[in-house]
Amino acid sequence: MSLFGRPRDEDGGSPAPETAAVAPERSTQPPPRPARGRGQGEEVANIGKSIAIKGDLTGNEDLVIEGKVDGKVELPNNQLTIGANGTVKAEVQAKSVVVVGKVSGNIHGTERIEIQATGVVDGDVSAPRLVVAEGAVLNGSIQMSQKGSSPVAAPAPAVTGKAG
Prior knowledge:
Blueprint: E1 44-47, E2 52-58, E3 62-65, E4 68-82, E5 87-99, E6 102-104, E7 107-115, E8 120-122, E9 125-126, E10 130-132, E11 137-139, E12 142-143
């Protein structure tokens, strides 16, 4: 046996030749990007910082906006992220909204809205959960109600007993 556990050839000299392993062919395609913090197989669409869209935007996947969007954005079952370079002038409705850039318009999140320290929102926000980081700007009203409940307070129960 050699120092590294390989069998030596019969005369005790150098290690016996082994078959060379063939390296797998390398693909010219880049490796797939993992979805950021999402479950396996979920897609994240991106609007790059050089892209400008005017009109309504709807979809059924998570979206990151780094460019400019002017219109209406609806992602009822997904997360919308307005990136650091993103500028949105729109009514926004999504399951979850994260603002790192700038939004001019009302935002409705069915689960959560987060405005990070560099985020600016000029409009009303409505969601059951709201996170506003120190340094963030929010110019508008806030409406928070629990999921499935109405924002109006329930009336007091009627008194049925006689006073006397």
